[in-house]
From TrEMBL:
Residues 1-13 have a biased composition (Polar residues). Residues 1-28 are annotated as: Disordered. This is Putative xylan 1,4-beta-xylosidase. It comes from Actinomyces urogenitalis DORA_12.
Length: 102
């Protein structure tokens, strides 16, 4: 009998959806929706194509839409992420122990 790491036991293998006229969409658990003959990840699981999920839009349009949906707390959390701010900090490397947050 073999044991499997619990962290990876529930991970699904990615499924790739190839399409003409659009990028290959890879998903592990996000549903895929079809709009105008194209496939998109339904990341918000709304069943509708939201602007930030639409790969046909520019990166700035998608980012602006997603940023408008996030709370200040969510945006602040994204801004704090950096390898040198890992918790717990490894204590070595180019930025040892510089994160003093709680």
């Amino acid at each position: 009998m073999t044991s499997q790491d619990p962290a990876t036991a529930s991970q699904k293998a990615p499924t790739f959806h190839h399409q003409d006229g659009g990028p290959t969409i890879g998903t592990c658990d996000a549903p895929v929706i079809e709009v105008d003959g194209h496939l998109f990840k339904d990341l918000a699981r709304t069943g509708e194509l939201l602007p930030y999920e639409d790969w046909r839009l520019s990166a700035s349009e998608r980012a602006a839409d997603l940023a408008g949906r996030l709370s200040i707390e969510q945006i602040a959390g994204l801004m704090l992420y950096s390898p040198h701010q890992a918790v717990p900090n490894p204590g070595h490397g180019p930025f040892p122990g510089t994160y003093g947050g709680g």
